[in-house]
Amino acid sequence: MSRNKPIGQYLVEQGLITTEQLEAVLSKQTELREKGTPKRFGEVIVELGVLSEIKFAQALAGKIHIPYVDLSNPDIIDEEAVSKVSEQLAKKYTAIAINIQGNKLTVATDDPVNFEIFEEIKFACGMDCKPVLATRTAINRAIGRHYSMQNVDSVIEGVDALSSADEVDTEAQDRIENAPVVKLVNTIIENSFRADATDIHIEPFKTFIRIRIRVNGDLKELMNVGSKIHSAMSTRIKIMSGMNIAEKRIPQDGRFTHVVDGTTIDNRVSSIPTVNGEKIVIRILATGNFALRKITDLGMTDYNYKMFEDMIKCPHGVVLVTGPTGSGKSTTLYAALGELAKPDVNVVTVEDPVEKNIEGINQVQVNEKAGMTFAAALRSILRQDPDIVMIGEMRDSETADIAIRAAITGHLVLSTLHTNDAASTIVRLVDMGVQPYMVSTSLIGVIAQRLVKVLCPKCRVPRVSTDEENALMHISQSVTVYDRKGCNECGGTGYRGRTAIHEIIHCSADVSKLIAKNAGKDEIEERAKLNGTRLLRDNISELVMQGVTTMDELVRVTYAV
Prior knowledge:
Layout: H1 7-13, H2 19-34, H3 41-47, H4 53-64, H5 79-83, H6 87-93, E1 95-101, E2 104-109, H7 115-125, E3 128-133, H8 136-163, H9 170-174, H10 179-194, E4 199-204, E5 208-215, E6 218-226, H11 230-240, E7 252-260, E8 263-274, E9 277-285, H12 302-312, E10 317-322, H13 329-340, E11 347-351, E12 362-365, H14 374-381, E13 388-391, H15 397-408, E14 412-417, H16 422-431, H17 436-442, E15 443-455, E16 461-464, H18 467-472, E17 480-483, E18 495-506, H19 509-516, H20 521-530, H21 536-545, H22 551-558
Parallel strand pairs: 2-3, 10-14, 10-15, 11-12, 11-13, 13-14
Antiparallel strand pairs: 1-2, 4-5, 4-9, 5-6, 7-8, 8-9, 15-18, 16-17
């Protein structure tokens, strides 16, 4: 009976969505149909943020009684099964073969009632098909991952053939039409994205080019290629990112977008001359295809989340997020902006660069060569009647001074600083030349954060903590902690993903008095702890005892501060 029931009605009956949400989805679907851009119910409900893609797929699987599979688990997909269906056919129908049993091929799709898919696959490979359900995103990533790995060898062979030629024509090297190099660059970017890398390092040496990617904060080698193609490779990346291909003696910056498995990713590029040629680093940034993170998704404890929420509710003042490069500061700021950006407020940002375009927010790009510095941009922004201002980074005393004055005159200012902990951020502002009384009257609070690696739940190994470890966690009795091991699911690293830890100082009346008196870091920190601030070490100690991360991570993160 439930098979014939509309999926929307089924979701309401299951308590997954409300009637009002269903009406909103159906209304949007009708609107898209009338515009000539029709979309399926599942696509619309995910785009509107009513249900996640995974939740919807699991609900649909339950309704039509077809198994749901999680394709992020590498053990699920059999390479022999993948090879039975051509890449062209897999991409045409967004379907991937994952298993073979006798003469039956198990095929994962997000549209299991479309019999045309299975008829064409059956005709192409001569095997009966059994459908299972997976999300479109997971299928696209699986197609990219498995078919691209089959193609990597041929790409490398093409590149090696180019670089092993007795004489390499310089003009031919520099031409972007050079197919092996184009394929190689695309393969590097695509495989890095599928590995959840944040950065790609292309490093030239005397006889080879080393390509490494940063995953979970650590660099790991992706591949090595011959050094003779370095010129062609760097030219290709420079053209993609709008850089000057003739200039090889000075550092350059650029950016480009690239579509991987149906997702548009934004890439920021930096080149710098080394003794063996230009080293290029590509930063892979999140784009509009990814939903903006909410502040509930930042990994904060309930206690810290409540403090953060109270801080950004203040109508005016300064909220600072602090931490080293790559600690997730921008993600936290964007999450706060997503919470604050309403139709009745004017939100303006000044960033270098604009990392993520957010609808409904006015974003300004810094251009120092043209004289558009943070300070100059900030002065202009304050004449644009803003309610909320986000400054990408307080880099100098002039920017800090203008930001503090903006807060005192009734604006909410969000920004970042590079300091080790929350208390030293307050001292840094005074060191930058801002008067202590101005800091005390304008500062709402400071969030210090770090990213820590999350243990793979499949292979973590339990043990009892030692006395030394108990001392580090400030506990008196031994508890169960976990060490990493390594398995197929985590790529042998023992870790899967990262989460954030936070230290929040809310500038209450007594903390503000200390700031006005030009108190030191230790004094401010002690007062904040009495008011309930939990330090970074307290936060990560909780995660260690919960089995989320390791003692190694506790030592790495807290010994750096």
